Amino acid sequence: MSCIVIDDEPHAIEELGELIGQVPHLTLMQSFPDAKQAIAYLQETGHADIIFSDISMSVLNGIDAAEILNNYCHFLVYVTAYREYAPEAFEAKADGYLLKPVSYLSFRQKIEDLTNKFQDIIRLQKDEHQFLFIKGGQKSSYIKIKYSDIVYIEAMLNYIMIHTTTGHEITYIGLKAMEDMLQSKDIFFRINKSIIISLNYLDRVDGNIARLANGQSYQVGEKYKSVFLEFLKKHTLRP
Prior knowledge:
Blueprint: E1 2-6, H1 10-21, E2 27-32, H2 35-45, E3 48-53, H3 62-69, E4 73-80, H4 86-91, E5 96-99, H5 104-128, E6 131-135, E7 142-146, E8 150-156, E9 159-164, E10 168-171, H6 175-181, E11 188-190, E12 195-198, E13 202-206, E14 209-212, E15 217-219, H7 222-234
Parallel strand pairs: 1-2, 1-3, 3-4, 4-5
Antiparallel strand pairs: 6-7, 8-9, 8-12, 9-10, 11-12, 13-14, 14-15
Helix pairs in contact: 2-3
């Protein structure tokens, strides 16, 4: 996990840097003497997994900076010499509160806790790219569909039918809207005005006919033919 340190005391930065250096999966990106400099850095670079921040600082204290800092990290951990800031830290949605001087044991315990939470975040982010939810026929009804299970999608008047390896589901959305939703997925290809196919289940192409592994065949429309054939050529073995 990447991290930065914010503290207006150089020795505190050095001590925390030594603790970070003793944890193999932590990387100290940068340290700052005040929160304003840290914010400027984060606005440019975009993100740090953990921000370790002092609270009592002259330029901008850590509590006041929390609303901005939380936008640029997974976890905000306060490192302070004062116990009395704990309620304010909780209100600022801090993920940890370490008292100076920070012991190796308390630091490692906090890092282990954050590591487990970080793994959950990564797992959820990965899962988000593997499935979608569509609205079912009843109110507040949602159906989970894995992208890997979709064979093809068919336009049916003002709704679409999603054909999967186990059956089909209907949802009231246009094919164009569905195409836009699948744009980031390189396994889906629209071949005519009514059909989007999954390349995972494309068995062969004979002229203008795309044949799927489930036995279905569809004509490639003139509007989509050149792009589709260009894609096939790029993925064709050549002698």
